[in-house]
Amino acid sequence: MLQTNIKTKSESSVPILKREGFGTKGRVVTVKANSFEVTKISKYDEFLKYILEIKSINVDKDIEADIKRERSDYGKSIRRKVLKELGLKKENWFQNVVIAYDGGTTLFTTDRLGFDKEIEIKPVVKENITLKNLQNLNGEPTQYSVQISRTDTVIKFAQLEKYISGEEFEWDFFSDDALDVLNALIHQRAAEKYIKSGKSSIYKGSKAKITGGIELWSGWFSTIRPGQESLFVNVNPTFTTFYQPLKLDEFLLQYLHPKYQKLPDEFNEYQLKDINEILKGLLVRPQHLESVQTERRIKKLLPATKVVHFEYKPEADSDETFPLEKYFNDKYQRRETKLFVEIMSEEGTHIAWPIEFCQITEGQRYKNKKLTGKQRSEIIAAAKMKPYTHEKETIKGAHEILQLQKNPTGVGMEVASNLAEIDAHVLESTTVEFAENVKIPANNGKWNLKNVKFVKSGEMLAFWQVVVFEEKGKRISEKDVYNFIEKLITQCKTQGMNVTKDIPLIQYVQYRKDDLEEIVKSAYKDAKKSLNRPPQMMLFIIPGDKTFNNNNKLYETIKRVMDTEIGCLSQCISVNSNTKRNFNNLQYCANISMKMNLKLGGVNSILPEKKLRLPSGEDVLLLGADVTHPKDKSGRSICSVVGSLDNRATRFATAYQAQERSGKEEIINIDKMIKEILEDYCNYKKNKKGSIEKTVASLLPPCIIMYRDGVSESQYERVLKWELPKIKEACAEFQAGYRPKIIFAVVGKRHHTRLFPANPKEADKNGNCLVGTVVDRKITHPTLNDFYLQSHCANQGMARPSHYTILYDDIKLTTDEFQCLSNALCYNFQRTTSSVSIPSPIYYAHLTCARARMYLNDDMKLPKVHSNLKKYPMYFM
User: Which Pfam families is this protein grouped with (predicted)?
Assistant: First the structure.
């Protein structure tokens, strides 16, 4: 792979790594992708670009904020309605012109609009539009000011054709106006009949009820993507969670079930915080105002005691007001509840409605909200789709919903009716090695622990204690716990771990969600006292019922306290107190033994040495990096970098930091984390037998390969431009003259490309492509060096390949070499007996981010892992 400067518009942009070839290793097969080739783009050569500004005149403040937000689905739906009304009012402006509009602030047209035809200067026109079916709080139809002005931009499809031919490329191609035009065009027809959510068309006629007051709607994602020598329409069935359109009191009862059969008059602080996370920003329609068709957003839930000073004005044009609670009690004889919701309003104004008078508006996504374990299980079951069914639904979405074969764009676009067929290749599988030179073939990406021992046991586990959290009325008997621990110890010993025969002391504690931190600390102190020394590990048995997030909260508290304040290894066991399913499952015990061995410093399995060795024979440091963002705007982003310590990539050092959420993916202080990893790497090498006297310079790896997660295509340039120099600077600062050769590759999972075997004989037993399938032709990027790799077997449903893009390489690996290395690393994730969908460094980085997020305090400070855990680098497993 060569770093090549191809023709770009910007001389200051980051050098581009151009594809120099394709992978050839493995067996050649034919696959189909959920992409439809665009055989003709448009009968028009160019589009003009107008700026469309829509401002509210008499719209309530919270809805006005939606209109201003470019990416708000609700705001887009309103802006589409406004433009439609404008087209009816000013029909002559839009005659003989094709419009491409996606609900944002940009309007694309095939010709000048009517008001702009004969004037050389660029006019700016304004019109007022009324939406009669959407009213404000006073019952008045909402009004909007629309301003349209033409820009100097002319979008030429000839330039787009140069990009897809590979003749030219620039980084901002990923946000190219020509692609925006085409994407707006293919979505316009669907937007008239379906709910639009980003690039998805959601069909509300197909719903599955989910526990907790939500429902699952099906739909189709679609987007225009560049391929090699052509454009493709990527179509993928998708599922999205929505709020059920219930009355608010009914929703709360479902959300809180089974804890409450009837709503209380008020909730405690913990419960109120949890509920308000779900309700904040939710659109509701007031049912007591029969003549008013308005929608307002919820600010928060309030008990009656918090609205005693609220006044209510029944008539908008009246000066008369009444005490809020008294008004509703007298007029409507309220009996059911004393709960209200405060509505977002102008500063200094307080509006609240009783919850039973609030109807949740249909079609609101349940996004950025925590799902319980039960909800996740129900969603997975409802969305599960066999590959054959997935393929049929893909074709249905293209033909019936998007109507791609019926000129949906109005510009003469022609799209193939069949899925794209591509030449692919299947990389050979590997063997997985255990102790005593036992080698197990990974058939279709899977193996098991039967009759094998771990490569290396961690330190002998002799001092540990079991803590059982019991919920009121749901005690797990000591006999059941004892029998489970006995099975677990037997399994650990069977796998070759050094574990004492003695059953550890079992301690019961009462689960109280308001005092979890002190309970964990007290349990540790009791263990330390009974053992007459600090325990090596604490095993916590926690309730497995996940209907009210109790399990998640308890787990997070245990990890935060044990990792950052106490400095002791911990292992959690989730058990349903009724079924005790995990207690009777030997496979579960085997899975737990893998985690425990890793935490104690052991190695479970290794790959053949040649699989992870560079052709040059040089040592390589494998890095994984990830950034995760908070669900709310006020939180902080968590970044992590992990690095391999040994040549078999079985142990990894971790570093993490918090940074302000900015909507950007760059890891701001990646240089500091790289230096932490290099220090841990050198210390590990020094401590190896015979290396204690070696200099730092002699210990450092000559090669570094960075697998970077969480980067969208539009941010490739800025992430590479920031992070690659920082990595190089960190190396030079750590050791003068240290200039390792580097590969920087991005791995993405959040894409919609799916692969299907063209021949059923080339499928696995579930109907997916074979494990190890690589696609690097036809649907991949016309310039960049990218490929799709399906490295895992999907136990149920459709397998999703990972998308690899190599942005920088001065190690000079061939395409085959990098693809084979990446595939091998998917077999090296130490806590499973199957290959995974992403290379293990990225998986470990993701786990580190998830664990670090649990450490965040209420004041958003991120504590460090306790120094006691420094000698256990895999503590986070």
Answer: ArgoL1 (PF08699), ArgoMid (PF16487), ArgoN (PF16486), Piwi (PF02171)
